[in-house]
Amino acid sequence: MSSKVNREEEYCDVVLPLPLPQLFTYKIPSTYIRNISVGVRVIVPFGQRKFVTGVVKKIHPNKPAAYQTKEILDILDIEPTMNSSQFKFMDWMAEYYLCTPGEVLQAALPSGFKLSSESMIQLNPAFKESDFDLTEKEKRVIHELRSKTLSYKDISKLIDSSGVQSIIKALIQKQAILLFEEVKEKYSPKIVTRIRLNETFISNESLSALLDQLEKKPKQQEIILRYLQQVPVIQDPQSNQLGIEKSALLNTNISASSLQTLLKSEIFISFEEIVSRLTFRPDEKKHNVSLSADQEAAKESILQQFHSKDIVLLHGVTGSGKTEIYIDLIKRSIDNGSQALLLLPEIALTTQIVNRLEEYFGDRMGVYHSKFSDNERVEVWKGLQEGRYDFIVGVRSAIFLPFTHLGLVIVDEEHEASYKQQDPAPRYNGRDSALVLARIHSAKTLLGSATPSVESRDAALKNKWGYVPLLKRYADVALPEIIFADMKTERKNKTVQQGFSLKLLTAIRETIANKKQVIIFQNRRGYAPMLECEDCGNIPMCNSCSVSLTYHQFSHELRCHYCGFARKVPNKCDSCSSNRLKTVGAGTERIEDELQLILPEARISRMDLDTTRRKNSFAELITAFSQGEIDILIGTQMVTKGLDFANVELVGVYDADRMLYFPDFRAIERTYQMIVQVSGRAGRKSGMGKVIIQTAQPDHPVFPFIQKNDYDNFFTREVYEREMYLYPPFTRMIHVSVLHLDKKEALKYGEQLAAKLRAKIGSKRVLGPQAPSIERLRNYYHIELFIKLERDIKGLQSIKNEIATIIGSEQNMHMGSKGRIIINIDPI
């Protein structure tokens, strides 16, 4: 990493958070020569009137010959925001996933590190007020502008009106004002106001005299006494330096006006303090984790295999206690002076596991995920740089943090598809990228799962990775009993009630009667997948996508789950005007409503995207369920992953069939993983767990593997079919999507692209073009191609670069602004 520049270097290459393939060179003004270094953020001009936050990647004396360089406008950092390991990692990601450095930077940097610009208004120096007939509001604005610049918000407050735009427009026409963009940092530290007692009064004598003086002012006297209760200035004079938060004192129901009087008379002194937005319990940390004999053996095997392997796969059944092994290994890494990273696939998981990890790591642990505000994410980034954190737990974006001496990376639930970023670029896999991150730092990686991905288990079997099985639950608790409810038979016998089999309903009633809890899994949110006219069969569709609109009863609207389009529920059919409209299918919202009608005494809640949009909604739901305030929790795949509830004894899978027949070569694998994972929520402490799977296909080949928890034979069958049809892990796949506003044009460009790719890399390696199951999304028609490359092909990156060149040429030369092409490496 380059430190401050010592010689008169004049230029620097800057990475901009824009989807552009190259870096841009800027001239370093002489005033900044001594202050600039690689990794600092800078403000640079880009285009006609745009300012962008970039990061300096290289400093050199070479002036570009191809274009006139612009100057850096400002340096935002004293110390670098990014380090050399991050640049190396970002370069790998841009190359491997065939995206631009700017797209990687956009994903890597928290929004709080990027600048925002705000339109500001100033008085035109040439303006003569006497030449114009101004309104009272315009005069008020001009009067304020004579002493300072104002924002739109300032003017809105000044004139107490929502019609700010019309006033500004009128003043512009009169050439009274000038508009300009003020560039500023988005990140702002959290500042709290604290108060302390004036040092004049911290002796017994002066304090007694003060209280006597305030005897006829009981409200002020009460404030002094309240402060002394919280801050014992006589016993501990140093405590007065820290004082107390003003808001905390006001929360004790004191008089705010009396407190203000004490501040004005300087009996109390007010001061500001910058504090962290992230709070953890630093006290009473647990020092050692207690492992069972099986856990201890697994841990020792992992450590032993780390001597010869950089990557180890821990295959631990649900409830086997993988988290305790993670904690022990993380503590070892930190004690050895290294940093550790624990990746989780879902924000929902962080809520519960953070509480457990906090007991061991306290304020040495940082948490990083998208539900945090921009400012909170910046504070974690800075905390890692400044050495306040040794250990980070987060979702996939945590791989971009500024680690300097990373020693251990753990990827929990490594099989999860949510580790894959879909849109926008970079379309990276967090698990695969974590392996590269660890390699850059010479760190070890542990992958953990009860249902490892086929690719990971294959790598372990081929001895590329280490492998440690942990096939018993903690304390020898039994795995749950798995039972199938044959929906064909139940419908024939007319025992199905609102989509629930008699078998599942009976088990729910028994479980609740025994004061135990139930989880119902249905991987579809909303009330019903569609609304249908009973007379003509018309189904309301999305205007921008070729999908039906999902009915949401709570908001009384039809909503597209792909583009977000929403409309009110129609009173009559759009096609034939019939008012005979019915809902078809069942989402989590409908299941919640109908189960509440069947079991009115039960306390039922729902966990899906619609109920967990707020920052703390996950934590609130999980806490309520953990504390027994909810009897039945209905959820999407959020409830399948790693959650640990001691009192859950029944899990119901509402509809297993819709997962089995999804048009994807991984559909069977995902069905197995999802059902085994959600089954693992049952009986984790008691060993009395039961799982009821509702299916019309109880004889499907995957179900015996699920029932017996027989991963090895499931893997053998699955990998046999993958090899036969040349799917991963035997090939590498690239998914190419051709998008165009015109359907025929999308197909034309798809065929042209396929022909060019076949000519370059061979016809057998290119599949398609074809329309996907959802042909139109957000107004764009999609045509897709799949490229299959041999796993051990020589010159892989060169071939990928050739593919990217062909695609780039096709897009730039032929498609224009109405189309684009998306490359997805290793689709999942």
Structure commentary:
The protein is of the alpha/beta class and 828 residues long. Helix content is 34%, strand content 22%. It is built from 26 helices and 34 strands. A seven-stranded parallel β-sheet has the order 14-15-13-16-17-12-18, sandwiched between helices. A hairpin with a 4-residue loop joins β22 and β23 (557-559). α1 crosses α15, α11 (293-305) packs across α12 and α13 packs across α20 (617-626). The radius of gyration is 31 Å and the shape is globular. It starts with 10 loop residues before the first strand and ends with a strand. The model has no long low-confidence stretch (mean pLDDT 89).
Please provide a brief summary of the model.
This protein is 34% helix and 22% strand.
Q: What is the fold's blueprint, element by element?
A:
Elements: E1 11-15, E2 24-27, E3 41-46, E4 50-60, E5 74-75, H1 84-96, H2 101-108, E6 115-123, H3 136-145, E7 150-151, H4 152-159, H5 164-173, E8 177-185, E9 190-197, H6 204-213, H7 218-230, H8 239-242, E10 244-245, H9 246-250, H10 256-264, E11 268-275, H11 293-305, E12 311-316, H12 322-335, E13 339-343, H13 347-361, E14 365-368, H14 374-385, E15 391-394, E16 406-412, H15 430-440, E17 444-449, H16 454-461, E18 466-470, E19 481-486, H17 487-492, H18 502-513, E20 517-521, E21 530-533, E22 550-552, E23 557-559, E24 566-568, E25 581-584, H19 588-598, E26 604-607, H20 617-626, E27 632-635, E28 648-653, H21 657-660, H22 667-679, E29 690-695, H23 702-707, H24 711-724, E30 731-740, H25 743-761, E31 766-770, E32 776-777, E33 780-790, H26 796-815, E34 819-825
Parallel strand pairs: 12-17, 12-18, 13-15, 13-16, 14-15, 16-17, 19-29, 20-27, 20-28, 26-27, 28-29
Antiparallel strand pairs: 1-2, 1-4, 3-4, 3-5, 6-7, 6-8, 9-10, 9-11, 21-25, 22-23, 23-24, 30-33, 30-34, 31-33, 32-33
Helix pairs in contact: 1-2, 1-15, 11-12, 13-20, 25-26
